[in-house]
């Protein structure tokens, strides 16, 4: 007979999901109530307010889509791209390629700006393409490319899009909660994120937000939105209607309790403090990893603190190291994705997985595991290098 499932106790330091805080897990274990219950509707309104806080926006259309980050991506493209629309899509990793897919599947024409994986989106290339084409409707790019660990200059890209009168569609799945992100101040028009990266809530929900300009485009379409589930006009009847909420779908009630709690925790900490925390622990981890002889894929000026992509040393079996970390330390780190598969490890410091304990565990476990695999390393030096960043704190 099959019995209850009890997952092993892992420490999650990959590209997401990140460790979910016990407060969030216990919030999710509270009794399920009806999704049209007045108490639930009040909680939905609080989630919207908390998301506005996290995204730094006053956009009334700010809500969580009841599906993972990929659905948030699709919600943005399906509402804002019409057949024949020209959209500039920037690709410098895996996720830009998915944006291209979205544009094309909804009948748009994707004008590609390609940059080497591990480097930021080139502002100059985007500008050149905008100069060369008339009638570009939108600029789409990934703020924090999780496949490589690179940060692009979202503020400059949004300013450029404004100068040329086109909308921006921004992937902030990994950036939200981990690095500075200013939806209103930067003039982002459509943004989607995920819950399982720096928000450290369970996976399966995608916060999205649309500006006034994006809403105008969505409500003045020539053609009907080709998705029923993701049509913002319909979803907003559910998320925007206050106590007069219209049934659209059944929200994932307990998962939303979890998101609510994770956002409350973020508000308690303060979003700016969360950004600083990610930067601090990244510095400590970096010092340790470099002492272990590991080099970063991305140059320091464009590195994401929450996603540390490091080269696998020559002659080391990367999958075997990850397997041993999991087996001996219950520690999960990420493998390379796409072009970088087999070449890098991706070490996440996201949300609840961004603490001193995580940094020290990772360095210690990697040092021991690499030593066992025959890499010669000075014992304890990496931990000491990381610890320097904490001595000022204590
Ligand atoms: C994780 C991720 C996604 C996809 O999110 P899912 O919740 O896995 O669907 C999209 N974009 C980026 C940059 C991501 O890191």
From TrEMBL:
UniProt-listed InterPro entries: Aminotrans_V_dom, Aminotrans_V_PyrdxlP_BS, PyrdxlP-dep_Trfase, PyrdxlP-dep_Trfase_major, PyrdxlP-dep_Trfase_small, SP_NH2Trfase/AEP_transaminase
Pfam families recorded for this chain? Answer: Aminotran_5
Every Aminotransferase class V domain range:
32-336
Transferase in keyword set:
yes
Does Transferase count among this protein's keywords?
Answer: yes
The record's PANTHER family line, in alphabetical order, gives:
ALANINE--GLYOXYLATE AMINOTRANSFERASE, AMINOTRANSFERASE CLASS V
- Which protein family is it in? Belongs to the class-V pyridoxal-phosphate-dependent aminotransferase family.
This chain belongs to the protein called Alanine--glyoxylate aminotransferase family protein
